[in-house]
Sequence to fold (864 residues):
Amino acid sequence: MKKSLRVLILIALVAGAAGAAFAQSGKSILKMAMFSSPGGTFQPAFATDSYDFMITRLVFETLLQWGEDGQLQANLAEKWTISKDGTVFTFVLRDGIKWHDGTPLTAEDVKYSIEYVGHPDYKGARGSFIAAIKGVEDFKSGKTPDLTGIKVLDKKTVRITTAKTYSSGLLRFGKNFEIFPKHIWEKIPVGKALEATEVLRAPIGTGPYKMVKFVPDQYVEFARNDNYWGGKPNIEKFILQKTNQNVAQALLLKGDIDQIILTSLTKADEALYKAKGMNIKSLSYNAYQYLAFNLTKDIFKDKRIRQAFAYAIDRESVVNVFMEGKGSVANNPYPPTFWAHPDGLKEYKYDSKKAIELFQAAGWEYREKEKKMYIGGKPAKFTLKYAKGNVVTEKSAPLLQQNLKDVGIELDLMIMEFAPMFDQVKRGDFELAFVGQGNEMDGDISKFYYSAYIKPLGENSGGNFIRYSNPELDKLIDGSLKTMEQKERAQIFHKIGLLLNDELPVVYRYHWYETIVYNGNLKHLFSPYAGEYYIKMQDWKFQK
Amino acid sequence: MRKYIARRLLLMIPVLIGISIVIFALINLAPGDPYTSMIDPNISADDKRVMLEAIGYYDSLPVKYLKWVGRAVRGDLGYSIRYKEPVIHVISRNLGNTLLLSISALILSVVLAVPLGVISATRKNTFFDNLITVFSFIGLSIPVFFFGMLMIKFLAFDLNLFPISGMASIGQEMTPLQALIDLLHHMVLPVTVLGMVNMAQLMRYTRSSMLEVIMQDYVRTARAKGLKERVVIYKHALKNALIPVITVVCISIGYLLSGALLTETVFSWPGMGTLVYQSILNRDYPLVTASTLVISLFILLSNLLADIFYAVIDPRIKFD
Fold:
């Protein structure tokens, strides 16, 4: 017994010593942490997992890309024109772009990639992406063999025609579709694409890095694309490594990982990273968390009530304490760094007294002696539904409970799993709820506030589950969809932001940041918006 | 004897069927479906319905179960919604990794627990015994997750002796021998963590079993006959004391397989534990059902093994 124990210890020590000899240099390899393993569906038309996106957005590219100024710039497409009435979009591809297998990229690939999601046998989630293009119905029903609204004019030029003025056209066609190779995917019947595991896991794209190996549940390895149209990348290998979230920090500090993307960062950790010479970049997500009112209930219909709630809630503490400053208080859907963000927003600074005054002005009764609020003779009491999984949300609930108690309102907390909670909320089965959502990059928020999207109580009302109906807002939204001029749209969105800030169909709580922490020697890493990780990746470089 | 084994094997079948029904019912009755948790704003209700229909979501529960059993019996455990691969491939890949970890941990824990248990029993109430007892209680009480993180902090991070997580060093060219050493290097911490917790339990068991045997009359007789103490303990007492220990070891195979989940999570070890966890989060029904069934099968088998071992080793046991 004892002898075998000794042998075991010996093996462990030898392994330890030998392993230490394999310490990595990291100069030519960039490793990024991912907290869950991708499923392996590396095809843009089918990928739905955010971890699959981490691969598809690197290997494949879109026609346009974000520039340093936060505006769309040439990417695969070199030039583009939009007709005055906003129905015809023409893109001209750059010369000399090749797929990872050497075949040249042509306009045929672009047409194929975009119309793919409209194919009658397509079983993915992106069917609605092409809804605006002319001829979509005929193609989906099989009447036409291809989507007639997309025409290939020559090897480099593709023209998309929409049924109506499509103001989001440049964003949708430029950024929503990663282009994938026709010569590979046309060989596989669209209906059987999800069974072509080999092809799904060996994506051929045009991006700066090409896939080398996918080891499920462990890592994905990429090698640089020497013939990349944007220039040969500096860093030879890129690896996405699955790591445990709790352990990722140790890996980063030890140098086993070069980059992590976090949605929260404590001040203590931030100081630690800075002390070790790491770079930290914080970007606001184009999104917000809010307190939703069920606007079908009469008590919430007076905007003064909703404004009173805003005054009653301490939102600053949520940002400064729970999020340690990695965010900002929100007073409208658009975060301060986004171009549609208006000036002159009302701030609704935390003020319990003002809240009580507003409640009273709207007809509620505050009994001073009991310190309780009464509505029509009955004590004010509500239930808040919210989901597990977000630490800040979970901490915000008891805080809200306390805030409302201070103005005499009783609040019951009901924590649930996200899926069933969201299902109930969408059907209108709630009073108050904590929800978060994102804005489109073109500023369009109609999905959540346009009255035409409301479905009756009991039915899934999709984005507009608060069931907000405001004819003035509807008119503004209609106007924004009709104009192609960026300046005009910005003006309209400013107006929308101010209107929502005044009406408060929801109490906007906060915008939150994405923080990228990365190796201090890694240079030229740049990201204008949260969620965009690979922009100009060919320029990234390890100094030293 | 052979009849006994055959009968036990046959009994396993209704148990397996029962387990499969319970697993199937529980998983399908839980709220949610694979696509609700994908918060892609662009999935319209129609698109979602198409996708759900494609995976047979709308069939009634008994129909789903029968369809599934029909396929499983033929060796087709289904198609993973997430990995877009036959479930068998996914499971076999991860199962191998877990087995590697579990078996190594088992060997480690047995190799350490048995001698320590014996020494503890023979030197009962000495300083050594008390020391080992304290450590084994720590080992029994400490949460696996916490223990793992502690090891990472001290041995991997501070002292830089071992890699922090994962199964292999990535991005480097390695010869097969180097790859093997690299694998062993990565295995040290997770095996130790998993083994230690199991070792504590085994050690306590060995100790108490040994104590019981030492009290027996035949041990006193052996000593009276003038045999050396070492012979008395290791040749006579230990063999009898090991009988229940072997049973416990067999049963802990099943535990190690499923309980390795926490260890695998901390060390990012791609095994069955993380597979089950991830597939539950992703509502990957075919994968969850199949992997839970596989783990149940292993536990059943390890129990069967324990029974057989016990019957083989102990000649006092008679079968009817």
Chain B has a mean pLDDT of 82. The two ends of chain B are 9 Å apart (CA to CA). Chain B touches chain A through 69 residues (CB under 8 Å). DSSP finds eleven helices and no strands in chain B.
